[in-house]
Write a structure and sequence with these properties.
It is a single chain. This protein has one domain. The chain is 25% helix and 15% strand. It is built from four helices and seven strands; from the N terminus they run βαβαβαββββα. Strand 5 (110-112) and strand 6 form a beta hairpin. Helix 1 crosses helix 4 and helix 2 (45-54) crosses helix 3 (74-84).
Length: 195
């Protein structure tokens, strides 16, 4: 029996995120599904699973984005499909903060701030620790995570931006660290998942 594909989901998909996630995925030895980019997500969950199963190796990084749509937009519909698919093992999600109004937040296991520090709580869009007392990360493609069994959720600011600290030109250090934290916390590193 074929083993399930190991996937990390990133809840951002604009052009800046695409370049940044491609660099960060390469930095950790993962495969990025570049065609998953879009603001909002353009491919359906079925199409994305097909791309995931064709990837050369694990882990596979997929981008999903709702473009600020309230309710369950295209990114969240695809995210739900991927997470519930029998051939996919979601290692974790890099949950991206945004300034979208009227969205419910989610609890995160940890966040990576715009200096690469690990925080116990959420960050805002610019990658700063939330100082308003909020205990949840707010983003436009994260509400559906409340209903899914996600083993690891790592919060992060706006990918590729965060006051320039995560620029792809400089190696996408913050996104790289967030992806690495998903791998570390999921137990993926050091285990043989090919069996």
């Amino acid at each position: 029996m074929a083993s399930k594909r190991k996937v990390i989901i990133v809840t951002d998909g604009d052009k800046v995120a695409k370049r940044t996630v491609e660099v960060a995925a390469k930095n950790i030895g993962a495969r990025c599904i570049s065609c998953s980019w879009g603001n909002p997500t353009r491919l359906a969950g079925e199409q994305l699973v097909e791309q995931i199963t064709r990837a050369a190796h694990d882990p596979v990084v997929v981008m999903l984005d709702d473009k600020g749509i309230q309710g369950e937009g295209a990114g969240e519909v695809a995210l739900r499909y991927i997470c519930e698919h029998s051939d996919i093992d979601v290692l974790g999600v890099v949950a991206v903060a945004s300034n979208t109004e009227g969205v419910e937040g989610i609890s995160v296991d940890e966040s990576v701030d715009n200096h690469g520090l690990i925080l116990n709580g959420p960050v805002n869009k610019n990658g700063f620790c939330c100082i308003d007392g909020s205990t949840e990360l707010h983003g436009d493609t994260v509400e559906v995570l409340r209903e899914l069994q996600i083993p690891v959720i790592v919060g992060i600011g706006d990918i590729g931006k965060m006051c320039g600290f995560d620029d792809a030109q400089y190696g996408a250090p913050i996104t790289t660290k967030a992806l690495q934290e998903v791998l570390n916390r999921s137990g993926y590193l050091g285990k043989n998942f090919s069996e």
